[in-house]
Amino acid sequence: MSDFEGLKALVTGGASGIGRATAELLAERGALVAVLDLDPSTVEKPLLGHRADVTDDASVREAVAAAVADLGGLDVVINNAGIGAQGTVEDNDDAEWHRVMDVNVVGMVRVARAALPHLRESSNAAIVNTCSIAATAGLPQRALYSATKGAVYSLTLAMAADHVREGIRVNCVNPGTVDTPWVGRLLDAAGDPAAERAALEARQPTGRLVSATEVAGAIAYLASPLSGATTGTALAVDGGMQGLRLRPVSQ
Ligand SMILES: NC(=O)c1ccc[n+]([C@@H]2O[C@H](COP(=O)([O-])OP(=O)(O)OC[C@H]3O[C@@H](n4cnc5c(N)ncnc54)[C@H](O)[C@@H]3O)[C@@H](O)[C@H]2O)c1
Fold first, then answer.
1. pLDDT of 196-232, one tens digit each?
2. Are 15 and 42 in contact (CB under 8 A)?
3. What residues line ligand 1, using a CB cutoff of 6 Å?
4. What is the pairing mode between strands 76-79 and 8-12?
5. pTM, whole model, 2 decimals?
6. Does the bond joining 117 to the residue before it have cis omega, within 30 degrees of 0?
7. Which uninterrupted H or E stretch holds 22?
8. What is each CA distance from 28 to 4, 89, 230, 231, 235, in whole angstroms?
């Protein structure tokens, strides 16, 4: 029997990229999966699509309630919806800081808040937040985005402590640069997309971008009942970018 057989999972931002790969993997491994997204029109069966904007508390509450009704309960929440921001502290105004914080940090809070009463009913409850290497490494031109992911990292630890005695595990994944539509948009906007891609690839010791499927595998590992003793951890999925220091390749 597969590890997710009979479990019910909800994935935010599950219509694209990492969220989509995760929703598909959990379904392949036996879970019933609902996707919450701003645009769920591309979500295909067996995944169940629900429209939700994580910046709108009423929308989140309605969508979580509808998803739980469809699924018949809830065991796993993948808090993954997020957006990017570029620049130093001089480049984004207050409105942009509030907007990105609202999606990337408060959005996860809203989803967790709506989901917790249902997770308390589960004997295999797990939350996995999509954090980023930007939480643990100083990356240029990413002040606002990094601040949101640093908050997600700390939020993960605090939530893990708050809910461990209720039997709810909370962990996060810290991906490096992942080949998703998001990064595709970044590359398209660059002056020289091929050079930008080569620079991003070179930043990771593996010499290539991470795939969405590889991040999905790490998320599934943390969400699985097989990982019942793992809570309050951040799992790097970054091609070695955080932990390794290589010497330059000699010519
Ligand atoms: N791609 C990377 O290199 C990378 C690296 C580290 C972390 N991440 C994180 O992974 C997560 C997913 O990124 P991705 O690369 O798959 O991006 P993506 O743009 O391919 O997918 C993001 C999804 O989130 C949805 N979304 C955005 N705002 C929303 C909102 N307000 N309410 C509901 N849904 C919303 C979008 O509609 C989209 O389907 C994000 O949290 C991102 O910060 C990405």
1. 999 999 999 999 999 999 999 999 999 999 999 999 9
2. yes
3. 12-13, 15-19, 37-39, 52-55, 80-83, 103, 107, 130, 132, 175, 177-178, 180-183
4. parallel
5. 0.98
6. no
7. helix 17-28
8. 9, 42, 23, 24, 22
